[in-house]
Design goal:
Strand order of the largest sheet: 2-1-5-4-3-6-7
Largest sheet: 7 strands, mixed
Shape: globular
Number of strands: 7
Number of helices: 5
Distance between the termini: 32 Å
Helix content: 25-40%
Mean pLDDT: 96
Low-confidence stretches: none
Radius of gyration: 16 Å
Length: 175
């Protein structure tokens, strides 16, 4: 699995962007050059834990934008599955970030379940130079904390030594 300090792979992927008439798009790493990006991957469309995360990332998108950070979600399902899911699930129709079809990218990242082949619940925080600054992988039955993703983003962007449970605005460690 790729980890902290590794370069996030170059990619181009088909994606679904909400459920409007122009919902099918192409996304690539090049459109995020020079930006912070949170890439989060989930196991499967049409499941139960995953939509809770997708909705929360969408709800908290202004918090990411305030930190000059883009959000990209995805799974190993294709863009048509993403679109069908967004159209059929009342809470997913207005997501304001793309859901990429990560059939190639997920294996390159090393985040696929070795038996079933779907993406594990993984999060990558990538800096403006395309370097991974934080990685987190969860069991498929456990939803991630968007608050924790934002906390880590704040800490990494602070370029300071941040103690356990540090939150933006609190004192950092002066060495």
């Amino acid at each position: 699995m790729l980890t902290v300090g590794d370069k996030f792979p170059a990619f181009t992927a088909k994606a679904s962007f909400n459920s409007g008439p122009e919902a099918l798009v192409t996304v690539s790493d090049e459109q995020y050059l020079g930006k912070w990006v949170v890439y989060f991957f989930y196991p499967k469309d049409f499941t139960f834990v995953c939509p809770t995360e997708l909705v929360e990332f969408s709800r908290r998108l202004p918090d990411f934008k305030d930190r000059d950070c883009e959000v990209v979600g995805g799974s190993t399902d294709n863009e048509f599955s993403h679109l069908a899911w967004c159209k059929s699930h009342e809470d997913l129709g207005e997501l304001d970030y793309p859901l990429i079809a990560a059939q190639k990218l997920a294996p390159e990242l090393g985040i696929c379940d070795p038996v079933e082949g779907y993406a594990n619940r993984a999060t990558f925080l990538v800096d403006p130079n395309g370097v991974i600054q934080w990685v987190s992988v969860y069991n498929g039955s456990v939803g991630r904390s968007v608050d924790e993703v934002l906390r880590v983003l704040d800490a990494v962007q602070s370029d300071e030594l941040c103690p356990c449970n540090w939150k933006k605005g609190e004192a950092t460690i002066q060495a």
